[in-house]
Amino acid sequence: MGWFIRFNKPYDVLSQFTDRGTAGGPRRTLSDFIDLPGVYPAGRLDRDSEGLMLLTSDGALQARIADPKHKMAKTYWAQVEGLPDDAALEMLRKGVELKDGRTRPARARRIDEPEGLWPRDPPIRARKSVPDCWIELTLREGRNRQVRRMTAAVGHPTLRLIRARIGDWSLDGLAPGRWEALPPPDRPRNR
């Protein structure tokens, strides 16, 4: 039987098991938290983003979850600078023009700060003169730094980004830096 796990990736951790090295010294990787031979991430999450990652020892499952052609929904909580109005949210819903082309339509809505949210280490830089709020975005594509580029394109740069859900799998109840074995799905579910 192979492994299928969910992991809550902390801020400033690479979404790979080895650090290819930089002049700044070694960086934290998945191997600092997960010691299971033969598991690999099903997709990536930027070093400066937090939240849900799925890992598996099943190559076909890994490809199915990670491959954008399967359009598996991924939900993010983004703390953004400013207070997006209905027009900004509608732009996100319809798709935003980025340097690499127009994004697919997304679900977008303002939300309260997610319940049970852990403090980020280090904390985000807060400015008293600039308000911030949380939005929830659900995408069915996975371009590099897409959420950050989308929110910036509508005038609300992302300050903190957390992936909360991939398909039917969620972050619920999983503390940062912790992982949990899951029953392997018969087949990945799209949502």
Structure characterization notes:
By secondary structure, the protein is α+β, with helices and mostly antiparallel strands. The chain has helices at about 60-65, 85-95, 145-155, and strands at about 5-10, 40, 50-55, 75-80, 95-100, 100, 105-110, 130-140, 160-165, 170, 180. Strands 1, 2, 3, 4, 7, 8, 9, 10 and 11 form a nine-stranded mixed β-sheet that branches. The longest helix has 9 residues, at about 85-95.
Give the CA-CA distance, first to last residue: 26 Å
Q: What's the tally of helices?
A: 3
Q: Using only CA atoms, what is the Rg?
A: 17 Å
Q: Structural class, from secondary structure content? A: alpha+beta
Q: What's the β-strand tally?
A: 11
Q: Share of helix among residues?
A: 10-25%
For the biggest sheet, the summary is: 9 strands, mixed
Mean pLDDT over all positions: 90
